[in-house]
Amino acid sequence: AWSSVREPSQVFMLLETIYGAFDTLAQRRHVFKVETVGDCYVAVAGLPTPRKDHACVMARYAHDCLTKMSQVVHKLEVVLGPGTSTLGIRIGLHSGPTIAGVLRGEKARFQLFGDTINTASRIETTGTPNRIHISHTTADELTKAGKRHWVTQREDLVFAKGKGEIQTYWLQAHHSGSTARTPGSLEHPEQTEKVPLTEYSIEKADPPRSQASRVAETAGLVKFSVSLLLPHLEQITALRVAQGSSPTPSVDSSSKLTEVASIIGQPGGALDQIKDIIDLPQVLAAKINSADAVLSNNVKEQLRSYLSQISLIYRANSFHNFEHAVSVAQSASKLLSRIVAPGVVNILTGEKQHDLKGDQELHDHTLGLASAPLTQFAIIFSALIHDVDHRGVPNDQLETEEPSLALLYSQSIAEQNSIDIAWRLLMDDQFKELRSSIYSNEEELRHFRSILVNSTMATDIFEKSLAKARKNRWDAAFAEQSPGVESRNRKATIVIEHIIQASDVAHCMQHWHIYKKWNEKLFAERAEAFRKGRADQNPTEGWYEGELWFFDNYVIPLANKLESCGVFGVSCVEFMSYAKQNRVEWEKTGKVVVSELSKKYCS
After folding, report:
1. Among residues 379, 537, 594, 599, which is most buried (max CB within 10 A)?
2. 602, 499, 533: which is closest to 392 by C-alpha?
3. Residue 331's closest CA among 228, 211, 465?
4. Would you give the DSSP letter of residue 166?
5. Are 247 and 320 in contact (CB under 8 A)?
């Protein structure tokens, strides 16, 4: 599930980092690494050099790996995004004779064969995350070595393919916040590392999150959000340098830009600012030099501070919260990275397939999106702020509850409110240098505002007048065959809106477990609104049928449109495949899921 929302390079980084850490531990413990097969790491003690304490060595090594895994994923979350720190690992241990040797061939390597290897695999697959599962044989070996206190019998029998029901055991691993050790503990004095209290404990179920853990989680989300935006902000600066313009506006220009930003950012004005055509750069003005992509520490800190303050304005809803916003931003970033054209490359990623006639070819094929760092920055920025201050209820209920907002915003109340809050905060004096990095002239300012408005307003998919206007834009964009600038910009505008729409419901086009997670969060939010009298209908009523309708009438048609846009390459196959698989799985198991959700949130 985690890998389904990541780029291949991110999956590779995770495995490479974990495997590298395990290799280091193996060297310390004198454990022999046999191989890695996908996400499975195989190691052995007692080979190729026999040793009597092989079971104890592997138990300690397994304990080391469990600890290191938790440390690694917590550190990688800043780079690889939310959910990384929750990744777990299953470990299975078995002891016995094996056949070992090097098979000759083109890629000869040392390999293990036999029943012992197969049994170890069965022990691993029947274990649970973040626990060390061991066989009866390994438990006996540890008992003989005087380590019976390391072992706890598993209450239920395990069915292992080819073995039938077998009795297995858990290897107890105790983690604390200090380096103190008890006699006979799994750690060796020279190899024990201090483990923070925030690390896992295999003896307890997931405890309720403390305020401190929630603060830490939000800080991690902010750091990841910065990592999504910063490369594009650097590219904006580098492009200005390449074009021979100043990276930041002059004092006089900055003052004028502040006035213009105040005028176009008047509360309640977003609805009238939605554009049928957003002008993108007509030509690729200059080749970006990555050496010019330098931002001051003040700009970086202001970006972090801005996103941190935005995260605090988000309310503690189950679904419409900052975690959801970051997830949408991550999906938008992924879609932007997938913008391709046959035989061309994205100059922002640097990936090349073969020689081109020039960067202008890429620019034209991708509707100008692949060579527009400000546009890409604005799309991800919009994803991060699109639900800020969301009240946990739909717009029709918000109209009843908040008459002052309803008076200010005639429709799309939540979306317009989010735009105004985010814009007002960005205009604060504390973010002056950040603003100067985002836009250095009025053209860039108005372009940034247009992307922000169109993208955020596109997330209101139930406002009929907006939906009709978007349909008309789609029909006009893909009906005309003109190769002109206006036609290309019209299509680019449509693509931008569909990037944010697809990202907003990306969980429906990802792995089943991710869809199920966010579906539960939305159900919980609606159930809370019903309990508090903020909704007329219990979400249990019609939830199953509603999800089927949503797949058939929005998600799958949206996946089809992504393909029709013609700029996302084979990624569209992935989106459609997951959407259809989730639709089938929901039709099959959705009623059971709804029943469980009803008991959990509506009883």
Report:
1. 379
2. 533
3. 228
4. E
5. no
- pLDDT digit string, tens, across residues 111-142: 888 899 999 999 999 999 999 999 999 999 99
Give the tens place of pLDDT for each residue, 147-189.
999 999 999 998 888 888 999 999 986 543 333 344 455 554 3
Give just the sign of the alpha carbon dihedral 350, 354, 359, 364.
Answer: negative
DSSP 551: I
Q: What is the number of alpha carbons within 13 Å of residue 598 lying toward its C-beta? A: 14
Assign 345 to helix, strand or coil.
coil
Q: 135, 158 in Cβ contact below 8 A? A: no
pLDDT band (50, 70, 90) for residue 354: very low
Alpha-carbon distance 593 to 590, whole Å? 5
pLDDT in tens, 39-52: 899 999 998 888 99
How is residue 546 written in tokens?
A: 């509603």
Residue 286 burial (10 A CB sphere; 0-12, 13-18, 19+): middle
Q: How many CB atoms lie within 10 A of CB 24?
A: 12
301 backbone φψ class: left, alpha, beta (φ>0; ψ -120 to 50): alpha
Q: What are phi and psi of 600, to 5 degrees?
A: -75, -40
* pLDDT at residue number 344: 40
Residue 300 predicted with pLDDT over 60: yes
What's the chain's Rg over C-alpha atoms? 28
Q: Cα separations (Å) of 149 from 95, 113, 123, 156, 169?
A: 18, 31, 20, 20, 12
Mean pLDDT (whole number) for 29-37: 91
How far is Cα 262 from Cα 260, in angstroms, rounded to an integer? Answer: 5
Q: Shortest CA distance to 236 belongs to which of 443, 495, 492, 407?
A: 443
- Say which range, 241-255, 434-448, 454-468, has the weakest mean pLDDT: 241-255
**Residue showing tokens 């980092």:** 17
CA–CA dist 94, 44 (Å, integer)? 10
Distance of CA 385 to the CA centre of its chain: 16
- What does the alpha-carbon distance between residue 494 and residue 566 come to, in Å, rounded to a whole number? 12
Instruction: Find the range with the poorest average confidence among 23-27, 286-290, 432-436, 539-543.
Output: 286-290
- 3-state SS, one letter per residue, for 75-128: HHHHHHCCCHHHCCCEEEECCCCCEEEEECCCCCEEEEECHHHHHHHHHHHCCC
Q: What angle do CA 56, 62, 67 make, to 5 degrees?
A: 130
Instruction: Give the integer Cα–Cα distance in Å for 314 and 318.
Output: 11
Taking a C-beta distance cutoff of 8 angstroms, is the pair 366, 341 a contact? yes
Point out which residues pair with 141 in neighbouring strands: none
Judge contact between 134 and 168, C-beta under 8 A. Answer: yes
List beta partners, residue 132: 91, 171
Interval 315-327 mean pLDDT = 96
